[in-house]
Amino acid sequence: MRFRLSTVIMWLLSFVAIAYFCGCDKSLEKKPQNYPDALILLPNATEVKYYQLGGSFQLTYKITTDYPAAELIATISNELKQGNWHALKEDYLNPGLSSSHVRGWTSFEDGTKKPPQIVHQWLADWENQAGEVIRYGFRYQYESEKRQDLRHLTVIAIFIPAPLAKQTLEEALEFSKKHDAKKTK
């Protein structure tokens, strides 16, 4: 299976992860007026943070819900569908790689954390007719040596405006071409 990701999206994802996990104070506690409605804040969410970076908008929060959070994911999916968003069967930036709409949850050990963490993740994109993209990531995470904690869910949502989404996709495809060309040499 091939994996491709543009530097712009990697940068956006990295910012959200760094800002969220380090507790940086460059976030807003209340939803700014210009935030897209596709960034859905569910009731009972805690540790809510809003970010704006490089033309994208992000929302992170925690919520208590049992794995696999099917009802929560269905709620967000239904709201997006009502807003004329359609679920993408493939990762927007990695054509050919099934999204969690198709493959469901994935699990892995994150050895970059000390102590290592077990991560259960659901990651997928939606797109609207304007070409805007929204990515939702749902994550349960716990120390690998400790008892499973599959009740505390982290939600990360990233809204990418159409021009940035198009640019990012073009960069991802160009990166993929160069990477594939190097592999065939």
Shape: globular
Indicate the low-confidence ranges by residue numbers. Answer: 1-25
Separation, N- and C-terminal Cα atoms: 19 Å
| Main beta-sheet annotation | 7 strands, antiparallel
Instruction: Please tell me the total number of domains.
Output: 1
Name the helicity range: 25-40%
Portion in strands: 25-35%
The chain-level structural class is alpha+beta
Quick one: how many beta strands? 9
With helices defined by DSSP (H or I, 4 residues minimum), what is the helix count?
A: 4
Radius of gyration, in angstroms, nearest whole number:
17 Å
| Average pLDDT, all residues | 84
Order of H and E elements: HEEHEEEHEEEEH
Could you give a quick summary of the protein structure above?
This protein is an alpha+beta fold. Helix content is 30%, strand content 35%. The model is unreliable at 1-25 (pLDDT under 50).
Characterise the protein shown here.
The model is unreliable at 1-25 (pLDDT under 50). With 185 residues, the protein is of the alpha+beta class. The chain has helices at 7-22, 70-82, 100-103, 162-184; strands at residues 46-53, 56-64, 85-87, 90-91, 94-98, 106-110, 117-128, 133-143, 152-160. It has one domain (7-184). It is built from four helices and nine strands, in the order αββαβββαββββα. A hairpin with a 2-residue loop joins β1 and β2 (56-64).
